[in-house]
Specification:
240 residues, 0% strand
């Protein structure tokens, strides 16, 4: 079973010390990280700070430390978290992989919390059969379960018991997940396409570096719907 806190700290460490933000920007948002209110360190607040700084300011320990001191002047946990993440990373080689793992863990946790909310509501309304079904779903969740499989299994329960409210919201949740995966694939396809172009060219290392940075920036804009429709259409053609 993966340790969520360690994964978050490894990703933040790769961002802060190895300039890895562009590799995870299209996968993760601040809401995918835990915060102090949830019993963890201030990982969410740090990632949120990085998002606000990119791309106009450098992403490094000194710059982030300066920014969080301004945003959270009375919070010593911020600086402690920054120091802690430095011990959890050795580079950016696997940062994309762990970003996907964290995304799955976070979505699974949020869906499980939603199941618990639905169960409480059903118990309050004295819908004991439906509440029992939700309890069974929650108890059968195994750490590491594929999120698509979890939602599909839940939907089968909802359809069988005619739990329309839960089914409608669960299907919406599923569609949002599909859209997220599509945007991630678009980003990866753009990077791969550029990689092939650079391999067959005779560009200098500096040109290659600048092209890669440019492609990542374009992909981030596409995946976050911050481009004109014709650019988004072109990106989708690349990813198909």
């Amino acid at each position: 079973m993966h340790n969520r806190l360690e994964i978050e700290q490894s990703i933040l460490g790769a961002i802060i010390y190895y300039n890895g933000y562009s590799q995870v920007a299209h996968v993760l948002s601040a809401n995918n990280f835990s915060s102090k209110n949830e019993g963890f360190n201030r990982n969410k607040e740090i990632f949120e700070t990085v998002v606000g700084m990119y791309p106009n300011r450098p992403i490094d320990f000194i710059s982030i430390a300066h920014e969080v001191r301004i945003k959270y002047p009375n919070d010593p946990d911020i600086m402690q978290t920054l120091h802690n993440v430095g011990h959890k990373v050795g580079g950016t080689a696997n940062i994309s992989y762990w970003a996907f793992i964290l995304l799955q863990i976070d979505i699974s946790d949020k869906f499980r919390d939603q199941l618990a909310t639905w169960r409480s509501k059903r118990e309050k309304d004295l819908d004991y059969v439906e509440a029992g079904a939700l309890k069974e779903i929650i108890e059968n969740i195994i750490p590491g379960t594929d999120i698509f499989e979890l939602i599909e299994d839940s939907n089968r329960y909802f359809k069988h018991l005619d739990m329309q409210e839960e089914l409608t919201l669960s299907l919406k949740f599923y569609q949002q997940l599909v859209q997220k995966i599509k945007s991630v694939k678009t980003m990866n396809s753009i990077q791969v396409a550029l990689g092939y172009i650079l391999k067959i060219s005779e560009a200098s290392p500096q040109v290659r570096y600048e092209c890669e940075a440019f492609a990542k920036a374009i992909a981030i804009m596409v995946s976050s719907n911050n481009t004109r429709p014709n650019y988004t259409e072109a990106a989708n053609l690349i990813s198909n």
